[in-house]
Design brief:
Strand order of the largest sheet: 3-4-5-9-8-7-6
Strand content: 25-35%
Largest sheet: 7 strands, antiparallel
Helix content: 25-40%
Radius of gyration: 29 Å
Shape: elongated
Distance between the termini: 100 Å
Order of helices and strands: HEEEEEHEEEEH
Number of strands: 9
Structural class: alpha+beta
């Protein structure tokens, strides 16, 4: 019986000693192991703006880092401008429509609203409504979760002009990396908010 008690005490002591050793090993000061994959942080462009004169009565302000890669006039009433953000691998496509009647203005606005609705694809979006000093009313739509067109806008002076635009990522893989493109989406959203506030 005494032999059994001694054996039990020794086993219990061995168990306690093992627990202390395991506890000590788990509390070591080893550096954490880095993850195998990481996405580089995107440095966004500074918020500095310059003016583009679209026509004698339409003027927009865009980020100075964005380069105009195409500027084409379809006719006297329509102009397309493509702004490239090289670091973001993205383009901002802007369309300016001059309308000759109220019905044409309403048709253009309806077309742009339908296009924005299709581009959202049923995803949740944030909407910002603004009005410039020159009475351009704007709606800016931002989609946070995986979209090739994460930022879109439509602006109108309700008389004869509609300005609309959409950000498009050239790298189709960028859309899958939602967390890594959020700073870009925020930066371009701020650029479009500035454009909308100063539209004249």
């Amino acid at each position: 019986m005494k032999m059994m008690n001694k054996l039990a005490i020794r086993l219990y002591a061995l168990f306690i000693l093992s627990c202390i050793c395991l506890l000590g090993a788990s509390c070591s000061n080893d550096a954490p192991t880095p993850r195998r994959y990481a996405y580089p942080r995107v440095d966004t462009y500074p918020q500095q703006y310059s003016s583009i004169v679209i026509s004698p009565d339409v003027n927009i302000e865009v980020n100075t880092a964005a380069r105009i890669v195409t500027d084409s006039v379809a006719d006297a009433d329509t102009r397309w401008i493509t702004l490239s953000y090289p670091k973001y691998k993205a383009n901002l496509y802007i369309t300016v429509n001059k309308c000759n009647s109220k019905s044409q203005l309403q048709d253009v606005i309806a077309n742009r609203v339908q296009r924005i609705s299709l581009n959202t694809g049923g995803k949740d979006f944030e909407q910002v409504d603004l009005q410039s000093e020159a009475d351009f009313k704007s709606k800016i739509f931002t989609i946070r979760g995986g979209s090739t067109n994460p930022v879109m806008f439509i602006s109108s002076n309700q008389r004869n002009c509609v300005v609309s635009g959409s950000l498009y990522f050239l790298d189709s893989n960028a859309v899958a990396k939602v967390d890594s493109i959020v700073p870009i989406i925020d930066a371009v959203s701020n650029d479009i908010i500035h454009l909308a506030k100063h539209l004249r």
